[in-house]
Amino acid sequence: MTKKFHIYTFGCQMNVHDSEKIAGILSVSDYEFTDSTKKADVIVLNTCNIRQKAEQKFYSELGRLEKIKKDKPALRIAVAGCIAQQKGDVLFNRFPYVDFIFGPDNIDSLQTWIKDITQNTGHVTQTTALRHNPEYHTKILPVSREGRIRAWVSIMYGCDNYCAYCVVPYTRGRERSRPWNDVYKEVNSLVMEGFKEVTLLGQNVNSYGKNLQDYMDFPDLLKIIHEIEGLQRIRFVTSHPRDLSEKLIDTMRNLPKICNHIHLPLQSGSDNILSLMNRGYVYKVYKDKIDILRTAIPDIAITTDIITGFPGETEADFQSTINALTDIKFDGIFAFKYSKRSDTKALYLPDHVDENIVSRRLAEILKIQEIITYKKNKLLEGKTIEVLVEGISETNSDKLTGRTSSNKIVNFCGNEKDIGRLVRINITEAKQHSLFGEII
Ligand code: SAH
Ligand code: SF4
Ligand code: F3S
Questions:
Q1: Residue nearest (by alpha carbon) to ligand 1 atom 14
Q2: Is residue 124 one of the residues assigned to a domain?
């Protein structure tokens, strides 16, 4: 009987894609995915440590698995991702029923572990694979992708930016770019398989190429990928405002397959806070880049990330963030309460902000942005927009769902044969989180 696996994924797109690699390795090792944790022979928890909430979610999920393992001692539990990397062996002390721990740069080590597991069923394999893996970015791993239309493609790993609040440089290590020909080949074969859209993934895609022997920068990578026939759309996340170059903006304007959307995390509108955060830009520089982007690509959608209550944030600093939101009018934002993370510099900054104030500031920001997003969406009513059809809507099985180039979700009545095609939709109704329309 085929053995079964289950994966829990926490965190960002990078982790979602890492879970596709984990699933890929397990699938080529003759394991089959199951929805049910009770039926699983192997359970992998792919963890995120970005904020305390993400960490707690993992611990409560792992806690639940203790009972399942008691009832089924042959079950093997592996912990992957950013908590695995940061906590390492310590997790074994608190959770002795965990069998295997591997970090984001050691996903390939799962291949050996899973091979041993089948030979030594019944033994607990307490191996850690948190070793240095300097060649990881040149390895090609099997991937079991979730969809058939859009695919994630890693172009770089790690981050060198050390923003004062952020664990990523400690969990994903130094920035390394994948060789451009590996990225090109992967996108090419995805298109041959029928995928229509790729999202290029990295913590700071704008600095792609820095370590490459055969150098290529990010705009030039976009250019060679753009040449691939049959590929309809290209997206990328995330851009760091400091490294957003005019060359990239020109490239976005000139290449039609590049989507009209950029996610450009601002974090705060206050120069004082931006400096404490070690972001490497002031608000004016950020705003100037937004103006250049909007002049070059007038209908571009811009989204951002905001942190409220970073240590030292005064009411005046907070007001600067509010002013930035009303000044720029983003299409959407992700806003978070500052969360203390181990290893980060912000822990040692003075003047940590009271939790009630942080919550109040977050609520205020979300309220202001809600109105801006709604108004922006309303402007689309009556317009005709091109949509890439992704599949049947999860919330309404009578409808198809797709996305505009500007990354807005559109639901509409249509024929299943349109899945994977670009169609023109007349937008009839705009809501807060999605649009509704009719196919033309
Ligand atoms: N590399 C990406 C984002 C990584 S994390 C970038 O630089 O944009 C995604 C978002 O989580 C960040 O943009 C930030 O807004 C938020 N974040 C990171 N660490 C955080 C912390 N300690 N507390 C609250 N939010 C945090
Ligand atoms: Fe974290 Fe900053 Fe790197 Fe983004 S750029 S991953 S926020 S350290
Ligand atoms: Fe979380 Fe790691 Fe991504 S900490 S946000 S899974 S890079």
A1: 305
A2: yes
Question: Among 16, 206, 336, 342, which is best to mutate for testing ligand 1, by the most ligand atoms less than 8 A from CB?
Answer: 336
Q: Can you point out the beta strands (E) in 362-430?
A: 384-392, 400-404, 409-413, 422-430
Tokens of 401: 């769902």
Lowest average pLDDT, out of 80-84, 111-115, 195-199, 340-344, goes to 111-115
Cα gap 439→384, rounded to integer Å: 9
104 within domain boundaries = yes
Instruction: Examine residue 65 and state whether it is found in any structural domain, yes or no.
Output: yes
CATH number of the domain within which 46 lies: 3.40.50.12160
DSSP 178: P
Residue 22: domain span: 3-130
339 lines ligand 1 (CB under 6 A): yes
CATH number for the domain including 427?
A: 2.40.50.140
Beta bridge partners of 333: 304
Task: For ligand 1, say whether the CB of 165 is within 6 Å of any of its atoms.
Answer: yes
| Closest C-alpha residue for ligand 3 atom 3 | 12
The count of structural domains within the chain is 2
Q: Which of 115, 130, 145 is the last residue of a domain?
A: 130
Residue 143 included in any domain: no
Q: Does ligand 3 lie within 6 Å of residue 171's CB atom?
A: yes
pTM of the model: 0.96
Q: What is the mean pLDDT of residues 146-160?
A: 96
Check: CB of residue 85 under 8 Å from CB of residue 47: no
Does 281 sit in the ligand 1 pocket, CB within 6 Å?
no
Q: Identity (one letter) of the amino acid at 10?
A: F
Query: Does ligand 1 lie within 6 Å of residue 267's CB atom?
Result: yes
| Number of neighbours of residue 366 by Cβ within 10 angstroms | 13
The tokens for 335 are: 């806003």
* Atom of ligand 1 minimally distant from the CA of 306: 15
Whose Cα sits closest to atom 12 in ligand 1?
305
Q: What separation, in Å, do the N-terminal and C-terminal C-alpha atoms of the chain show?
A: 49
C-alpha torsion angle, residues 421, 424, 428, 429 (rounded to 10)? 50
> Of 130, 146, 176, which one is at a domain's C-terminal end?
130
**Whether the CB of 81 sits within 6 Å of ligand 3:** yes
Give 397-440 pLDDT, tens digit per residue: 889 999 999 999 999 999 999 999 999 999 999 998 899 999 99
Q: What is the pLDDT of residues 303-356, one digit of tens each?
A: 999 999 999 999 999 999 999 999 999 999 999 999 999 999 999 999 999 999
